[in-house]
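Office hours follow-up: a student asked to see two folded examples consecutively, so here they are.
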Amino acid sequence: MIISASRRTDIPAFYSSWFFNRLKDGFVLVPNPRNSKQLSRIFLSPDIVDCIVFWTKNPSSMLHKLVKLSEYPFYFQFTLTAYEADIEKHLPALQKRIAIFKQLAEHVGQDRVIWRYDPILINKHYTIDYHIDFFNQIASSLRGYTDSCIISFIDDYPHIQQSLIKEDINRLQVVDILNLCSSLSEIASDNQLTLQTCAEEIELLNCNISHGACIDKTRIEKITGRLLLAKKDKNQRNNCQCLESIDIGTYDTCSFGCLYCYATTSKRKVQANKRLYNQCSPKLVGDLLETDIIKDKPMRSLFSLQNELF
């Protein structure tokens, strides 16, 4: 099974000690997002974890712990954008994050660190020219440190709509997307990057941009050298191309405070959950309670029993 760590929060940035304790103990308890009393026990044995996909904006706290992943295939989805504090409130400076990206790639290889430039949003300050300029700066800095970039465009989730209105952010029009992506594609090509979209309906093949999969069969097979028999994840959005996975994160636990975040519904909830954090607990928020209902998640490796791919 593939482990997603995590679409719901930034485990490398805030919870790496907890994560490695979970690997050591061999399991994690993950609450049902709709009923926090119902927990799934996810086993983390290297025999059944085919790959771990990390999602992060700042994995600096993990850099000295990567040796603990030696038994697991893994790669990182690393978001690097150029927004200011009005959009991404609590991130380190861009140049510092670029340096962290390079350091990570030097440790694990460029095929295990994917650059995410998403979500792309437009207003009077963050114009198409703004994105082209900063995309070019970041791409040039990352040349040789990654082989891929994934882009997506802002979604107006109900709980962020008022914030979007306040910052005068609207959905991108098709003409804006095409104009922007034509330039981004040229920049990506100049820097030896494959450019793909994440969960987008629009076709951009004329810009040499294909639909991508963040949890990617081809990449996992390349990293492991084994044939993966996995299906598309039916629990994601219709346009998402990702393989099936199990996410071990919890909503409302990321402290970066990004305006566009779908996984954070309120600052108050994040603060409350952070106060309950115990790095030795089997679950991310709080300790195990007598009222918790735990069920073992059926799990198996998705690798083919046939010979290795290479």
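And the second, which I mentioned at the end of office hours:
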Amino acid sequence: MPAITADTLTLPRLSPAAATDTERTVTSLTTGPRGYEGEGFPVVRAFAGVPAAALDPFIHMDQMGEVEYEPGEPKGTSWHPHRGFETVTYMIDGLFAHQDSTGGGGLIADGATQWMTAGAGILHIETPPAELVESGGTFHGIQLWVNLPAKDKFLPPQYQNLEGGQTALVASTDGGALVRVVAGEIDGHAGPGSTHTPITFAHATIAPGAQLSVPWRTDFNALVYVLSGNGTVGPEQRPITGGQLAVLGAGDRITVSADAHGQEAHRPAMEVLLLGGAPLREPVAQYGPFVMNTRQELAQAIEDFQAGRLGVIPDDALMPHVARR
């Protein structure tokens, strides 16, 4: 179950739809393929097959897990570089340890978010802590890449640790859904994340049979990704299920409804991510962990990394833990 929960009857409520509001309709619905990342942890490639223009300003998103590891099985990533964008790691369940070449880092625990602005360049590692590797356990999270505008590509690297308790909590109009606002703002409720690119990033739990209607900035695009469960999206009530992404058209509100029956046994409610941002509408040149505007900038990023100009692995570096036998 998600780490951050609350009694929705005690929370502030989202404003109901006005007569003049228009619902955002579904323009595409895709199913993310499954694969492996880093040292071999399972992911769903949430944005696979979606045109970049529909995702802008987002570049990439993986749903990490959900998996129940046996002892010795948890895996992460080794040290690697980034330049030109922001990485967002949101842990729904479980633990991930992070360290970077600027001194940032710590334990990303249940409900917490690591917000790392790679900017001009950084090295970092994300790996399960030794205690999780030894014991096994639940691992479930999201990694999202948010593009930086050309003017901010070479900002000094920055790190934000957003604890789960800092997340803004708000209930749907009828109290049937809990919304956790991690970054941006929904109906006047602002999340703790500080972003260079204007975006909204939220996680909602929708009870069976309930409907979530969320006011949404008209200048933002809108994406709905289902972490688990079954329901419908948009005024046309398009069926949607776990691992699927809906891209929505223009309008004032996003509507997602959870089916009254047939939710997953281990997650009785529907779990969704709500994403949107102001499109940058700039050229994107990407090669692995570098997201720039031109091929020349990519070549420079690779050269800078190879020359050690993107940072140095610290002497006390965190390293992947191997379980004792």
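Two things to take away from it. The chain has one domain: 8-305. Residues 295-306 form the longest helix (12 residues).
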